[in-house]
Amino acid sequence: MGEIRREVWEKHLSSFPKEESLLKPFLSGFYVTSGYRRKAYNSELSVYILNPEEFMKEAFGFNHEVLLVYTEYESMEPRTLQAAEQFLTDSPAKGRVETLNYFLISEDDSVHNWLQTYISENEETRIIIAFNANELRKSRGDSFFIRNQLSKQFFTRDLFDYKLPLAKDTYFFGRSNILAEYIDSIKRGENRGLFGLRKTGKTSILYKLERMGNQEQLGLFIYFDCKDPSVRKLRWHQLLENIILKVCERYDFDKSVLKFDEVNISSTFQKVLSELSSGQRIVLIFDEIEYISFNAKLDNHWGEDFIDFWQTMWTTQSRNRKIVSIIAGVNPIVVEQDTINGVQNPLFGIITHRYLTGFNIDEMKEMVRKLGRKMGMSFSLEAMNYIFNRYGGHPLLTRIACSLINNSLNEQAVSRPFDCTENYLIRDEDKRDSDLTFYCRHVVSELKQFYANEYEMLELLAGGHTRDFVELSLHSEFIKHLQSYGLLAYDQHGIPYIPIPVIGRYIALELAIQEGRRTILKVIPKPQREEWLRRRVSTVIKDFRFLEKLIKLNKMVLLFGPNSFPEADQFVNIKICSDERDFIQFINICNRCFVDSIEIYGESLGNKKFFWNEFQQNYSGLFYALRRIKIYRHDHMHIQLNTNVSSLLLEYLNKDLERQKPSDVQDLYFVLQQCVLDGLLTALQIEINKIEINKISKI
């Protein structure tokens, strides 16, 4: 049971004794540790700080004390909330109370309806738990009144379901390193660019930069949303005029003598900037830069105007370091292309740019944990790792996925707080990912438009054609932007994968639909299987022979010893797998040819762990493919498998069968055979590439 601290009585309640009846219901879960009177936005309010008891912290995710504001006015007005916002950032509350939520007591009987309307119009509003003063007075003796109100109001608002750029700090998470880097660049007068896939948070970062810059008084920040017709419809000299007028207005410069025609605008721009004092700086932010670039699709005049505009910027900045430009968009071609129709691109070489990918795992965990706890959703460590691995830290996809989890809990009428485990999330994975289809399409749509060849590479990888991807990826121009956008990574075995699986699934399913398939993997049609098998076998043998030659030439750890793999004639004559018997014969031959022979060579060196140690360390990609063969053989040749082998078997089957039950897969044993041979070919290509790349790097 909580209490009202003596100093609250002495310093505040002694002057406002009627407020005691409003505080008493909170003592069933809080200590009242501070009380004072404040005035802001023409409103005088009583402010209290409540310290929650442990059971309240656990139930509602409180990590700090909670601000409580009482307004004695009989009707609610926005200025009351404006005042409360200020109190949160003032002493003694600043750094002491919860920042995502506060309590509000109002004499207005319709406070809940008023607040609901206000929040619907201002979605970034903090969580405001409202209490009607008369209801509080009547609740005396009901120890569950406060808890019931908190449950009702905390757990009904979906904090994850927010899709617009964040204009306030309330729900902004992470990105501290990027922000510090760009603030530092502004201070040094350096131009910067920020590019990334749709909905990675670029605009939210730009808004945050502007807020930080204004707080630190770094200069005049002028933000342009270049897709806005009021911006993109302007000619280059009209956009410069817009900037000049904003500068004149801010610093009270006389604009009556300025000339804004196309011929004189550049000199006017330079003249205005030259009048800035040493402590004054202009920071221009151009969001969605594609819309006013030579690549613009809607307004053709920017094909030429882009040159004039940025030549003026370039010339001005070379003489005056008081202006900084920050540009952002999806397509970095505006800074990567050196010439435009034979003319030097004025942005080439003067803008340092970086790509924005998803949150790192710590940033994502902070967002999911903080917002989830306020909604009565507690995510285990394994569950948060699952969310990160499934959605790659992409801000929008992660938020919407968590919103869908919340909707599922509501549909099931689950009592909260609820422990969201990894198994619970996996259970609804397919339905949740299907609901994310629209957002996945939006995220990658412009990648397909801007970089068609790279998108086709992504389709190869998503569709399971890893070997073809590896072969083509030797040409770096085919994967350059995939890596930068965070859509391509390599695992510990050197095998490429899409680090946002839900996007990989979307791309693969879209391709499957286009090609009339029901599966992500393009299973070889029956009439073509014999020819396919002969080609695969021939290529595997050739690649193995070539890899062995490279290993010997580079004096690396041998695979099979002085001789090549045995029983090549058996491997040449393998058959199409139509049933389990065929597959057992096939996997046994593969095991004897490639796995047993490596282990026998290791034993000849007196090293029984050669396959698991030296071989794995030196040829991790090939090890992964051969371990698949070893595990599949164990599954069919042993009655019982130990825990480790069973776990590895499940990992390979989930990958090869797209998480389907074996009994649900048509032509199961051919599908497994195809995956084994394709995996082997991919691994050989990876190992060959690694040796050749290392050789080139040493030259």
From TrEMBL:
- Top-level division of the source organism's lineage: Bacteria
> Which InterPro entries is this protein grouped with?
P-loop_NTPase
Q: Give the matching PANTHER family.
A: ATPASE DOMAIN-CONTAINING PROTEIN, DNA-BINDING PROTEIN-RELATED
Q: What is this protein called?
A: Uncharacterized protein
